Backbone:
């Protein structure tokens, strides 16, 4: 496999982008990214099972992403914003070897780390803007 997984979300995280964020748009983005990563991690879990590779961390990630998705969904409903439609699952590539499965696992993991840092920054930014203090 010579190509990257193009179906992963492309997350913009420049200072200019962060300064222009709005709550409703950002929560919708966060929801879409979360759902996309759930699809990717679920697909990866299946790929790993096919090669008898360990997949327990994938199950944990799916559970955390599902929890985050539910929280965002609730937040969107509270601000009376329509929950965006689920991202369409583009066809995932055929994974011919265990090595390719491992490479894709690293790629998804790295992008998931970027997503986690981005989402944390977005949520902290909104908390500061709202004047909420830590509990």
Residues:
């Amino acid at each position: 496999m010579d190509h990257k997984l193009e179906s992963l979300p492309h997350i913009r995280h420049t200072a200019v982008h962060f300064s222009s964020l709005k709550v409703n748009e950002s929560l919708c983005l966060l929801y879409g990214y979360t759902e996309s990563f759930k699809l990717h991690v679920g697909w990866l879990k299946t790929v790993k099972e096919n090669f008898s590779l360990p997949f327990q961390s994938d199950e944990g990630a799916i559970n955390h992403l599902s929890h985050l998705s539910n929280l965002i969904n609730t937040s969107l409903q509270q601000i009376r914003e329509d929950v965006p439609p689920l991202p369409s699952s583009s066809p995932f590539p055929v994974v011919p070897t265990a090595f390719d499965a491992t490479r894709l696992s690293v790629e998804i993991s790295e992008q998931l780390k970027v997503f986690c840092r981005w989402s944390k920054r977005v949520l902290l930014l909104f908390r500061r803007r709202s004047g909420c203090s830590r509990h």
